[in-house]
Amino acid sequence: MTSSMTIAVDLAKTVFEIAVADSEWRIVERHRLSRSQFQAFFFNREPATVVMEACGTAHFWGRWLTGLGFSVRLIPAQAARPYRRRNKNDAADAAALIEAARNTEIIDVPVKSSEQQAIQGLHRIRSQWMATRTARINNLRGLLREQGINIPVGGVAP
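The chain above was modelled as a monomer; its predicted structure follows.
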């Protein structure tokens, strides 16, 4: 069971910005926490709804928070962006997530399992590998053409 509090988290590599809103969607707490402080913060809280922008580390933290009993919502970055009221910074991003969480029309991104993330990572690496391979082949083909050697696409030199 979750409380009526909503906790917005702007994720980062080392420092996390947190905004806690009450049932009226008013921000009642703000915290800027290190990684260890971030974990301690959630260990010492009643389960609530946690809202994060759907980014790479959000799935890890989403799984971790779900394991602690929190309800996790991942909001697409493009859906949260219009709710930022001032310059882009961590505190403004956390406040924007609170506002975006109020919009029931935003479709949340489901938290991926470790296996899903691993498969997605493999697909990305393969796609990047194929793109760089093609670029290298085209570069070599161009260098050879400068020397009068023509290798047709998909073929071999005569």
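The chain has a mean pLDDT of 88.
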